[in-house]
UniProtKB/TrEMBL annotation:
<feature type="region of interest" description="Disordered">
    <location>
        <begin position="1"/>
        <end position="24"/>
    </location>
</feature>
<protein>
    <recommendedName>
        <fullName>PPIase cyclophilin-type domain-containing protein</fullName>
    </recommendedName>
</protein>
<feature type="compositionally biased region" description="Basic and acidic residues">
    <location>
        <begin position="1"/>
        <end position="21"/>
    </location>
</feature>
<dbReference type="InterPro" id="IPR002130">
    <property type="entry name" value="Cyclophilin-type_PPIase_dom"/>
</dbReference>
<feature type="domain" description="PPIase cyclophilin-type">
    <location>
        <begin position="62"/>
        <end position="203"/>
    </location>
</feature>
<dbReference type="GO" id="GO:0003755">
    <property type="term" value="F:peptidyl-prolyl cis-trans isomerase activity"/>
</dbReference>
<dbReference type="InterPro" id="IPR029000">
    <property type="entry name" value="Cyclophilin-like_dom_sf"/>
</dbReference>
<dbReference type="Pfam" id="PF00160">
    <property type="entry name" value="Pro_isomerase"/>
</dbReference>
Length: 203
């Protein structure tokens, strides 16, 4: 009888664990690649993120972009970018390149989120220089005197970016992948370029 009771308790604990795991999985709106260390480090420390891009036409890998964040100057934008790389609330995996202009910039779409939209939030005002290799989030206008952005992000490819109001404050810089970005910029409206893999580079 004792063995039977212990066996029943074990079955109940196993069932509870399965339910708990199921509930935890439901908090993720999209599937996250297994190798991404979601909780490896905080968005409040400088972090290197990689983005692999491929052609959506022939599934050919186009290269890797590596971005280093600057949370000491742009904490909110770094927090949002970190979360969407790690799959918290949405993810950049599968996002397409919206536009590229040679020697100027490339822009990627909003992160893919559960409700299909993307909330606006205030940009971090800072003194980081908008130069070749700078990463920022696209401007969406102003509210109460503060510039608003969405999760669309751009990569500047010139030391003299166009002053067309699209560029908000910087939250990081390229550390690798300049030639990849230069090639992407020649593709114009890049609906056929997508982010195929992404994650955190651990030193």
């Amino acid at each position: 009888m004792e063995n039977s009771g212990e066996h029943k308790q074990q079955e109940e604990r196993t069932s509870l664990d399965e339910k708990t795991d199921s509930n935890q999985m439901q908090t993720f709106p999209v599937q996250v690649p297994q190798h991404i260390p979601v909780l490896h480090r905080s968005h409040s420390t400088r972090t290197n993120y990689f983005l692999d891009v491929k052609s959506n036409r022939n599934d050919c890998l186009l290269g890797r972009i590596v971005i280093e964040s600057r949370p000491e100057s742009a904490p909110e934008m770094c927090r949002v970018f970190h979360n969407f790389v790690c799959g918290i609330g949405g993810i950049y995996l599968g996002s397409k390149m919206m536009k590229g202009i040679p020697d100027k910039y490339i822009i990627f779409q909003n992160a893919i989120v559960k409700d299909g939209g993307g909330a606006m939030f205030p940009a971090d005002e800072n003194d980081l220089v908008i130069r070749r290799g700078a990463i920022g989030m696209r401007s969406q206008g102003f509210e109460n005197g503060r510039k608003l952005v969405k999760s669309q992000f751009y990569i500047v490819l010139s030391d003299n970016p166009p002053s067309d109001g699209q560029f908000s404050y910087v939250f990081g810089y390229l550390t690798a992948g300049y030639s990849v970005c230069d090639e992407l910029s020649k593709m114009g409206h890049g609906e056929n370029v997508i982010i195929s893999d992404l994650g955190i580079l651990v030193k």
